[in-house]
Amino acid sequence: MQYIPGDYRPGCIVNVPVKTSVGVVGHKGVLSDRVGPDGLPMVIHAAKLFDAIVESTMQDFMLMAKGPLTSEGFPSTLPPVLVVARARALIGKPWKWMPWDNCEHFVHEAHGLPPKSPQVRRAGKSALGAAGVGAFVWFAFANA
Predict the structure, then answer these.
(1) Local confidence band at 144 (pLDDT 50, 70, 90 cut-offs)
(2) Fewer CB atoms < 10 Å away: N or C end of the chain?
(3) CB of 45 within 8 A of CB of 54?
(4) In total, how many domains does the chain have?
(5) What is residue 48's three-state secondary structure?
């Protein structure tokens, strides 16, 4: 397992690049206070593979990794035990229980922060830009 040194205590947000249909994106999870059989911390995350929030081994979390694991630290003021409890309370919920279907929203929920996703925002801006260019081209050719 490759990882970049950082804050890896329970409740921290971890990120691993994974390949998707839209390119390589960061898949995020919350480090658990439990240790897997491999001796590494487990990770609670929104797993598209299982269509649910799950607690999995680090090896399973990094199954589709296209780069090293990184820590995004601890963005809230909640105690780590509460962040892990909030994340664990969501285990078993369908992956699409949130309308935005994004692991970034899940980790923010666990930290008691407002839901946000820079990845979704970037994708939305790209889609709007592409739609705008398409509309312009269509309009230009339709009126030529």
Answers:
(1) low
(2) C
(3) yes
(4) 1
(5) coil
**Assigned domain for 86 exists:** yes
In a domain, residue 26? The reply is yes
**Containing structural domain, residue 17:** 13-116
Asked, for residue 139, whether it belongs to a domain, the answer is no
Q: Which residues contact 59 (CB under 8 A, 6 or more apart)?
A: 1, 36, 38, 40
Q: Exposure pattern of 33-49 as b/e (b: 16+ CB <10 Å)?
A: beebeeebbbbbbbbee
3-class SS string, 58-113: HHHHCCCECCCEEEEECCCCCCHHHHHHHHHHCCCCEHHHCCCCCHHHHHHHHCCC
pLDDT tens-digit readout, 3-28 = 778 889 999 999 999 988 888 989 99
With contact defined as beta carbons under 8 Å apart, do 64 and 17 qualify? no
Count the Cβ atoms, other than its own, within 10 Å of residue 51: 13
Residue 55 β-bridge partners: 44
In the prediction, which pLDDT does 4 show? 79
Q: What is the pLDDT of residues 97-117, one digit of tens each?
A: 555 568 898 999 999 998 876
What pLDDT does residue 120 have?
Answer: 46
